[in-house]
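Q: Could you predict the 3D structure of TRUD domain-containing protein?
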Amino acid sequence: MHIVSDLDRMIGLEVYSTATEGVKGRIRRSSNNSRSDGHYDHFMVEEVIDVDGRISISKVRDNRHRYPLFILRKEGIDTIHALKELESKYGLRLNALGLKDANASTLQYVTSDRVLGVRRRKRENIGSEKGDGDGEGGGEGGRGMGIKEVDEDEEEEKELSTRHCSLKFVGYLDRMLRKRDLIGNRFTITIEIDPSDHEYLEKIKSVIMEVRARRVGNFYGYQRFGSIRPVTHLVGKAITKRRFREAVDTFLTYIGEYEDEQSRNVRLMLRDGLSEESIEHIPYHMDLERDLVESMIKSSDPIRALRRLPISVRRLFVEAYQAYIFNRTLSIAIREGYDISTPSMGDICFSVDVNNKVGDICRFDGSRSKDGLVPAIPLVGFAFKPIGRFGTIVERVMEEEEICSKDFYIKEMQEVSVEGGFRPSPLLLLYNTFEILSNNGGIRVRFALPKGSYATVLLREVIKPAQPTLVGF
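A: Sure. Here are the predicted structure tokens for TRUD domain-containing protein:
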């Protein structure tokens, strides 16, 4: 059995799904830390959407087609900060279907509920008031020309850009895109191979065979928690237990093993207390920390401080804790020999088509074929019920965590409450395709996964890293 890393255990990844020896290699990555080589095309992500006639698009805005659709390309910035950057420069409030990591080159669809416009200042000539004889009006009774500045939204269909991203106009939709329109993500990733590993192709093919057989667990990946600083689920746990000051302190002062020196020093400083002076030492890239500190200094109210953060970030905390419980549940199931590929009587299941597109949910009662069904694991939430064989494992984990389902209805911050739900237990390969392409110094792999699944989970099975952060995870 392969030994998992300390980081893996911290986020609930307690096992591997495959017995294949890991490839000697690393994901070629770029980031804002010491691993950066200045290029982001080594890890590329592109959203796959399927509106299937449910939506109409037009190049011209009319009474029906009112919602502009864009393709957002970004590098070195996460989706939340990319949207903030675009809003700051162009006044555009955009909605994304999913959140993408900063450490990649990503293409994703975004929509807006307003017309594409760049706010400009327009100089407009107007007639002046009657002159007093000596002014610029031109003498008694004359009418001169003055200058007035007015705001105007000018519709533009060209590419907009900021430091980290660009926005390309596609057309106008007859409705906003919805999360159900997103099928998944297509990945193109470079893996650097150690020259001493002469069997890497066989190892990769062996893992992909297991994925196609639906025997690899559909874990939440490192990005959900943070590989540099795995803290989101710890903040979420504190919120769930109503320890709001602990949630603030954890987010501000928890130090990741591989954080840069500047960030580490800031967190050490904040452990000594929050002050106006400390704000001056918080760098630009720690904007969320700055918002928390400013709010805590003003009110000392941790709930108010947490609400200074974007709603997507606040929800991410509790959802990350939910994901941690899922990972632990799936780890136990695999370790104890549960079949995660085929439904058993009483299981909640998802239907999947020949391309592994995930469809409706149902309960397997033996009245229909198991073909086209995959087992689902319950996601804990305030509506959680221990259904099926996996539900009993979730209960075991919740007991160890000393929580119950009602804890996920957070009366003090209702907007971050989570109801629960279900998630496919096996990792599914969208369209059942996995390409291996040659590349200088390594290989490039290309594949697609359903929305919510992580490429790093598949690559973790391929490489089986002893220190994930140091090899690009």
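Q: Anything worth pointing out?
A: DSSP finds 13 helices and 17 strands in the chain.
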